[in-house]
Design goal:
The chain is 44% helix and 13% strand. It is an alpha/beta fold. The strands form 3 sheets. It has a 6-stranded parallel sheet, sandwiched between helices. Strands 11-10-9-12-13-14 form a 6-stranded parallel sheet. A two-stranded parallel sheet has the order 7-8.
Length: 443
């Protein structure tokens, strides 16, 4: 089979590389000449564990190629995937579909035979129908069907998520398109992966519903953490106690500074706007969006409070900048809402992130000093705030932290440390939703 992947961002590059690992001939297309040149040299523009080896292997085997020429990449493809960005549109929060529609029209002009045009980008309900209309408008005689095939990839675990997914969702009403998509995903069918065939609209809504439900779980446990602090309960025990119920599940019940990344913030907002436009408002999701936005800024206030009510003239060591570990993605990362208010309040911020500070963080966080290690960031600081739970931070020795800091204050916004160990080391330790006694034990 032959596949053309329009877009070499996170979703497009991972999906294209994984399909090529299945033995499919994949051509990845992007208008960014510099990005394509880097990929041709074997340079990966994003950090995703294992992706560099996967790309190199399949590029060497001739199954994975890169180009800027969409018109030459589309003819002869069995499926053409649209995997371009759908950021929040400025001013109203709707998903910006301009890149999707531009790609659809270019595909229409390039089609020479039958192909399934697949929306892989996260798009609102109705987008697939509009993609078909636009292709038909520029190419009335074209032979094609449109399918929706949303991605469910977690950054940091995307390759394993693709190779062994919980499910594959495909929306189309064409038997011919179903046959193409079933053959494309045949390696997953052979390992008994559930493949859900449904309508275009249902498939598009499944993606938004899934992300929004997970964002709601995160927001729920964050609010429970706040309540735990007021009543003296332990949010981790609460999460365990409810998560053992099979109807609830354990995942996404870890408290923190709020969700971020490329999906949850824009997808929850886009779903809210879609529901409002159709006269069926989603009050729960509206509350989730509002609570999450306010939570990030509230984390800055926690750090100020831990420092005695003022950070003016104080040095804060910050460990972790990306929205989650094992990625260099800074999109809607909590650090972007937490650090600027601290800088504005007169703090000096020394930060370290294993991957984030090599990319966009330097442009997004002006005024922050970037360090070569966690130890360098903590040396002589008045407090340490942990924002992202990279594994190398989990193993830090509390006694070493105490020796490096000028003032023994630790604000752990990911609850990676043992309160007992931190207090035993002489640290003034603050975490999320866990009571800390004088002896450092939590309830």
């Amino acid at each position: 089979m032959r596949v053309t992947m329009i877009g070499t961002g996170y979703v497009g590059l991972v999906t294209g590389a994984c399909f090529s690992e299945f033995g499919v001939d994949v051509t990845c297309v992007d208008k960014d000449v510099g990005k394509i040149e880097r990929l041709e040299r074997g340079e990966i523009p994003i950090f995703e564990p294992g992706l560099d080896q996967l790309v190199a292997k399949n590029k060497a085997a001739g199954r994975l190629t890169f180009t800027t020429d969409l018109a030459r990449a589309v003819p002869g493809a069995d499926a053409v995937f649209i995997a371009v960005g759908t950021p929040s549109r400025r001013g109203d929060g709707h998903a910006d579909l301009s890149y999707v529609y531009a790609a659809a029209e270019e595909i229409g002009r390039a089609l020479t035979g039958y192909a399934v045009v697949v929306t892989k980008s996260t798009v609102p309900v109705g987008t697939g129908r509009e993609v078909a209309r636009r292709i038909r408008a520029v190419a009335p005689q074209a032979q094609f069907d449109v399918a929706s095939n949303p991605e469910f990839l977690r950054e940091g675990a995307a390759i394993s998520d693709f190779m062994r997914p919980d499910r594959v969702v495909i929306g189309t009403e064409s038997d011919r398109a179903r046959a193409v998509m079933r053959e494309l995903y045949r390696p997953l069918y052979l390992i008994e992966t559930p493949i859900v065939f449904t309508s275009l609209e249902t498939s598009e809504l499944i993606k938004y519903a899934a992300n929004t439900f997970l964002a709601t779980k995160i927001t729920f446990i964050n609010e429970m953490a706040d309540l735990c602090e007021k009543v003296g309960a332990d949010v981790h025990d609460v999460a365990k106690g409810i998560g053992l119920d099979g109807r609830i599940g354990r995942k996404f019940l870890h408290p923190g500074p709020g969700y971020g990344g490329s999906c949850f913030p824009k997808d929850t907002l886009a779903l809210v706007k879609t529901a409002q436009d159709h006269g069926s408002p989603l009050r729960i999701v509206e509350a989730v969006v509002d609570i999450n936005d306010k939570r990030k800024t509230a984390m800055a206030a926690r750090i100020v409070d831990a420092c005695g009510g003022s950070v003016a003239g104080k040095t804060i060591a910050v460990l972790g900048l990306t929205f989650k570990p094992n990625t260099d993605d800074m999109r809607d990362a909590p650090s972007l809402a937490i650090l600027p208010p601290l800088l504005a309040a007169g703090a000096r911020i020394k930060a370290y992130d294993p991957e984030g500070m090599h990319g966009e963080a330097r442009q997004l966080l002006p005024g922050v000093e970037f360090c070569a290690s966690a130890a360098e960031a903590m040396q002589g600081a008045d407090a340490m705030a942990l924002l992202t739970e990279w594994n190398e931070f989990r193993a830090l020795d509390p006694a070493r932290i105490r020796a490096l800091l000028k003032t023994p204050i630790v604000i752990d916004l990911r609850n990676v440390y043992s309160p007992a160990d931190m207090v035993a080391a002489g640290l003034d330790y603050r975490s999320i939703g866990r009571p800390v006694t004088a002896h450092g034990s939590d309830t």
